[in-house]
Amino acid sequence: MQDESAKVSDGGAGRGGDEESPTERANRELIELLNELRVALPGVQVLFAFLLVVPFSERFGDLDAGDRRVYFAAVLATVAATICLIAPSAHHRLRFRSGVKEQLLRVANVFAIVGLALVAFAVTAVTYVITDEIYPGTIPRVVAAVLAGSFAIVWFVLPVFYRPTKTPESSPPDG
């Protein structure tokens, strides 16, 4: 029988305030993280597929050297994001049932955050290149700055301001 003192509250997150053991919490958190990565990864794959075909298009030769460098940086960032976002699944599979779940969670969390930052950079860079082809001049820099700022605020700054709240108890259905 499990020692009740080993149970911890999850603060109302995810399980309605139920107590769970450290192992249960680690299992839940890993499942949540892997599910989040399943959402992010298809977008990165689509971006990468798009970037792979661009050099073979007729107008790619029209890009100036600066736009080619930005495009290549977007390709490299997308590759790096793919590496970071798939790494947690690879680590989980390689170390399955080896007792390193807490360490895996910490490392996987870092990979996920770095992967998202790389996706933000890649999307901003490729949008810059596209905008520079359509509206050369200052507009591409403004668009890229607004996008970079939006990614930073929405993905990285806003979550810092979340405050824990207790999940409301569910009420039984009227009947």
Helix content: 55-70%
Number of domains in the coordinates?
A: 1
Terminal-residue CA separation: 38 Å
Tell me, briefly, the overall form: elongated
Q: Structural class, please? A: mainly alpha
What can be said about the biggest beta sheet? 2 strands, antiparallel
Q: Could you spell the SSE succession in H and E letters?
A: EEHHHH
Give the mean pLDDT: 83
Number of helices: 4
* Low-pLDDT regions: 1-16
Rg over alpha carbons: 21 Å
**Would you report the number of β strands?**
2
**Largest sheet, order of strands side by side?**
1-2
Beta-strand percent range: under 5%
Polypeptide structure, described:
Residues 1-16 have low confidence and may be disordered. With 175 residues, this protein is mostly helical. It has one domain (19-159). It has helices at 22-53, 65-94, 101-134, 139-157, and strands at residues 8-9, 19-20. Helix 2 (65-94) packs antiparallel against helix 3.
Question: In short, what is this structure?
Answer:
It is built from four helices and two strands, in the order ββαααα.
